[in-house]
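I wish you would study the pair of lines that follows with an eye to the fold:

===
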Amino acid sequence: MPRLVVLRCLLTVLVFCVPHQSRMLLQRSGSIQRLAVKGGQAVVSRASKRNYITPAYNLAKRIMPKISETEAAALNSGTVAFDADLFTGDPKLKDLVDKYEAKISAEEQSFLDNETEVLCEMLNNHQIEIDQNMPPEVWRYIRENKFMGMVIPKKFGGLGFSAHGHALVVEKIAGRNGAAAVSVMVPNSLGPGELLYHYGTPEQQDFYLPRLAHGIDIPCFGLTSASSGSDAASMRDQGTVVMEDGVLGMRVTFSKRYITLAPVATVVGLAFKLSDPNKLLTTGKEGITVALLPTEPNITLPQGVPGLRTGPRHNPLGVGFMNGTVQGDSVFIPMAAVIGGEERCGFGWNMLMECLGEGRGISLPAMSVATARLCCLAVGGYARVRKQFKVPIAEMEGVQEKLANIAMMTYQSVAGQALFDAVLATGEKPPVLSAIMKHECTEIGRKCANEGMDIIGGAGISRGPANFLASAYVAMPIAITVEGANALTRSLIIFGQGLNRSHPHLLQLIQSIQDGNNMPEFNKQLTNLLGHAFTNLGRSVARGLAVQVVPKGNDISGYYEAQLGRLASNFAFCSDVGLTMGGGIKTAEFISGRYADVLSNLYMGYACLWYYQKHKHVKGLDKVLDLAMADHCHKIQEALMGISSNFPIPLMGPVMRAATFPRGREYHKSSDKLTRQVSQLITTPTEVRALLTQNVFVSKDQNDRVNQISRAISLACEADGYLAACRRAKRQPTAEEQKVIDEAEVLRELIIQVDAFDTIAGQNHKGEWMKATWTADAVEGAQQSAAQ
């Protein structure tokens, strides 16, 4: 019965709105859209003259989601950005293009061209995976050259890099070696440095930040424990405020796992739940608290932290980076070790949400973009060089389909990364977009690695120095898992947090309910919400008609901008309808996951359009944009269809379907012709290939496989062109042509070779123990005896 009351409210407004709009649906698109907005405004005007009765208020109290203290901390952390525009149903591409610019400073570019290049040349990926550690000279170079202090401000000795500069450094390293990339990534995103900068006491900042910037201290951060992975707020690590020998402190028991850099850390950030049964705190409060613990005595804690144990190591898929445990039983931690001092006790969750969420959207996506770019460069080149049935496999349609996917997904992830970094450059810290970036980019990285492995075949599954892709392929599940497993990020966080945080009216409505009997404010916010819903209902219908008469023509960007505008209004309307589920939407993960798919693909789609506007001078990029946008529109359509087909409240599903896709499915994946064209853009020396492979490290060592492929692609194209011309003219190559053909063939022969070893892991595979010490007659005789 309560939901029927909500349904009746919606249908009442529908009666007010739709007839007037229906008379004008065949007008030109601009008039239709203006009418849609006016229709919503009329709803607001009529609704504002009503006072919603007490039963409606009580109904809302029952069905609206309850917000816990930890959820409130997440909602109050960071800012909203373009995600808020998506929830309005009326985002503007021009606003994105005018407001955001992804760029790096000359200093950051120099660091990429010099220090980062030197580091990458020092990295032997194969040997690091054998040794399960980087060599001492690499550790020293990373620390002395401030790779661990990129985001620490210059006044504390750090490099003070922007988000985009930080991302590009991690990206370039990740294309060479995962262990080094993770070792650089963690102190700049998941370490305690940013917590210290924003919340530390002056004494903590002055001591630790210069040491972290110069690599004197190696940090780690202990958050995850056995009982709390993605649900970090449910940690069992407990601390109690005590007074011992006149020193106010805490007795804390903790057992953390999966902590990157823990085995080599000299300072540990530790999160735990603090209680104060004896009321010893004079400031601060009970709750999640964050402390900074040195593994050895220092001037901040001359006695050190007796009982703190770091290590032993975990082995994350053999990638070779340091990861292990942080443990302690009833360890005494002085109050001076709390980041920010006593007054920050109990505010740890707020601090973590504010600081660590940003890093989730930078470093992990950067590592995934590195995999996608590497696939464009090396897999695309390999497909041109490798021949089967006397033709390059790049010309085989089964391979072209996978190559086009790699090109498309690389473009999508690069665009998403650049826009997110540009958003951060304006001072915004949007946790919803950060979650989208982590989920979408790591999924793209995994898919690109899978497609790449399919293409290079045996060269991908034979481990050794010549294998440029297997390490990224093996490591991708780590990126998928950490910082909130993707399955939960999609089904719980992206839309769940986005709806509450980014919706223009919902949070205020919930607040009016939680304030108590604030009927006037409730009436105001419900009025706004209903007006918003039916403005977007009008937009959905109007734009759904308008886009039918928008030709694609040569304006690919304009065409897809119109499509995304229509789909954004569809999303906003369906999100408002989703509120009829009340708090139930928090646990309806099938539905929430589909809403997340729509929101994520809207962001990524607008990022693709934004990136194209910044790079539309690149010849052929319009074809990649066309393929990418067809993919996003199709995914949004399928998610919206899934929502309306499975919506649990009667009649609401058909209402959503009628408003969004009354004629059924309208978006389809790309044509074979476009797929072929896009695949060829990354298997030949084109401007698109150059753009999509920027920032991939290519060793100067001519025996390096990526170096060989980079040199071979132009030669292979030129040689194949000469051979084709000779076949057509029925002639022999000239001396100059033959020289190119021979050079290409030498490189081709090198590139198709794989590694082979006399022994693996030190085992002699042909030892005496492999010689048979039995005969066939003896075996058969024994079997016959057993049968009797």
